[in-house]
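An example makes the point: we print one protein in full, the chain in one-letter code, the fold tokenised, without further comment:
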Amino acid sequence: MIKRRLLTCMLILTSISCLAQFDNSNSLVRKMLLEYEMDSKGYYHKKEGALVDKVDKVTSMYAFDKKSSNLYVQTERGNYVVVLNKEHAKIYKQSKLAPFIDEKMIDAEVMRVNQMLEERYESLNAARTRHLRDSVEKVRNDSLEKIRQDSIQRAFQKAVDQKYRQTHNWHDLPMNKLELECILCRHHTFEDIVYCEGIINDTIYYVENATGIMGASYKKLHVSQYNPRLKNELKYNYHVKMFRDSLSSHTYLSPEYAKAENEKSYAAYAESIASKAPFGYVESTGYDFQEDRLIFDFSYTNTNKKTIKSIDIFCNILDPAENVKKVIKLKATGPVEMLETKSWSWDDDTNPVPPMVTGLRISKLVITFKDGQQKILVKDIIYKEAE
């Protein structure tokens, strides 16, 4: 008798531990009375009448029919009737794990649970509809707000772009000191801004104001390949974007064009220099008296189209009172081409000087050109760079 009671208690405990699940181990048949299943859009749809292999996650056992061994259970999503096997039906009869309901009242209980499930999932479906509607509305409002913000940003950027074009010269190309090397003359520049004549096929044409002699200058057009580091230069790329039409408009630009323009510019510069000093000028001089001999340095720039063959230099050696004590003639041998500067030095005993002399003055230059013609320059028309 004791063993039987112990076995019964064990079976009851086992059944209690399995309350959340019914399958072939404890039941003969499991039938779906009502079940809700969610679709891909988040809506729940009801199903009825199908047999199932298992009923798990039971939340309530709300009725038991002792006569038929039918146990009525509820899960979060469904309502089921489970036909218990003989052994487990006996346990439920003895343990009262589920309320005993008269079979006449079973239908009412089933309808009550079904109604509760229907109300719950109708409410969830309604909430889902509201959520989707609100989501669509939010997406629509977000889209409209993005359109509005984009419109504001475009208007702002348009104003910024317009102001930039109004306050900047398209020729002034920002370089941020990145190197440009001329493919014609190997000139290098590392400027913040270069004066650009145009950009054709990634070749940059820019102008240098080259410093010449006698305070003169001339324009020189350089041709440089695109520096790859410019790809990351914001100022450069923004400027090119703002003035793309202007920068690409001079389609005639080419290395050959640049060579021809530079030749014309240099010729005009040479003509300007020649008009100021048509036969050249003394670039620099220096002298000293050591052990009664003259040490003399002399530089001359030819501004004439003709090549200088030689220069005779007449030097007055002066005492402290600036009286002429001796005249020394020096000869500087060329050739000296147009706009070329050449230097000579004398440091030997072939030019002795009187004692107690302190000064030197060039009194005359005799320029002999390669064609044999000569030009005499006296003191008043000897041009010097320093002057």
